[in-house]
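Quick log. Single chain, no ligands specified.
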Amino acid sequence: MAGRALIVVSNRGPVAYGRDEDGARVVRRGGGGLATALRGLAARRDVTWIASAITEEDRAVAAERGGRAVEESLSGDASCRLRLVAHDPLVFRRFYDEVANGTLWFLHHYLWGLGRDPDLGPGFREAWRDGYEAANRAFAEAVLDELDAAPEADVWFHDYHLYLAPRIVRERRPSARLTHFVHVPWPQPDYWRVLPEEMRRAIHEGLCANDVVGFHTERWRRSFEAACAAATDARTRTIANPIGIDPAEFDALRESPAVLAEEARIAAVRPELLVVRVDRTEPSKNVVRGLRAFGLLLEQHPELRGRAGLLALLDPSRQGRPEYVAYLDAVEREARALNERFGDGVRAPVDLQVADNFPQAVAAYKQFDVLLVNPIFDGMNLVAKEAGLVNERGGVIVLSENAGACEELGAWALPVNPFDLQAQADALHAALTMPEGERRRRARAIADHVRAHDVLAWSEAQLAALDRVPGPGASTIPSP
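-> predicted structure:
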């Protein structure tokens, strides 16, 4: 194989283990851009993937392997060595639920109304120490063990779960080649002051232990550098490197039997003008404001009532957390209110479906006249790229200016302020009434861009940036 060996480190791995109805072990392939990117890299490099054991069957597999990595098939000829880290269940809950998703996710997406939230009491410090720090140490120890076997390997950390692990590895292996990709937005320096000083310093110094840190956009990269300057003397190289998708995967999906069956169902009941949104049910996705903007469109343009409808396909997310349960309740209430107000007894203007149904989502991508993507903040938002690639109707994308995808696609989409309901309603109207030639010109430009900037190019660019580092220890980290 060409290229150096590669150790990928992320909370979620490329596969998950479970049991079928007969009790036999099954392997479920992971989705998302990271798993897709690895499949391409695994054909070119010797890849080891370190991830948390998340399911009960994951934990059983980890116990059987005694902490060792075992070869796991990904797809076709691609495979990797998969090493599962089985955290103590309480450690994992504190690490994942309380700190990573319960705190850092909210911070990264500006989701706190600081007049009320958050309250970082003694329990949070305990979760940080006995959860987040402990889990990051466990990941770092696994990396160090793999580096003992392959000292020349590159190490690629991912996302907000693993901010502390790079520094632990750097202190024990000063010559290691480390890179990190942050898939979420990076807040401005003052917002980081929500966290206690020692925690925000540890996060920024942990990331600066890498030789290269990547972000989806120049905007997030600049915010990180400004936040580093405010939090610590540590510095590192940074790059803006937006993730793509795998066009071949979506070319195959769009014609798959499952997608075609879902598309037939959508086409049979679709209104004349179809607005689509595909999201997880989490507050950062801004679904409630999107519904209100659609209601404002119908209120101000009565000629569209009965002609335009909104199909909202929402994947239930983190329903173990009360904030997410409350948000889904708010989404459902808003949809009911719009249907009561604008429904005519024959057709409801909002078709809200809450389910994990990816073939249905791809079918809706093909059918939209307008795609509404209005997150409060989003590191990238791959829905805009996926849907823009497979759409067959010259669909127009209404895109939040706070989605990372807007930096790439904004010239051809209709950018909007995600808090401005009137601006979103106006953009929906402009998209629905845009001349056919202009719609198709924009749609072609988006599809061409997505094809030219795919996920394999993203992964290769990240590792090429690491190759350009002149020598080990390029980062500058204050001594502990």
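The domain at 6-243+458-467 is CATH 3.40.50.2000 (Rossmann fold).
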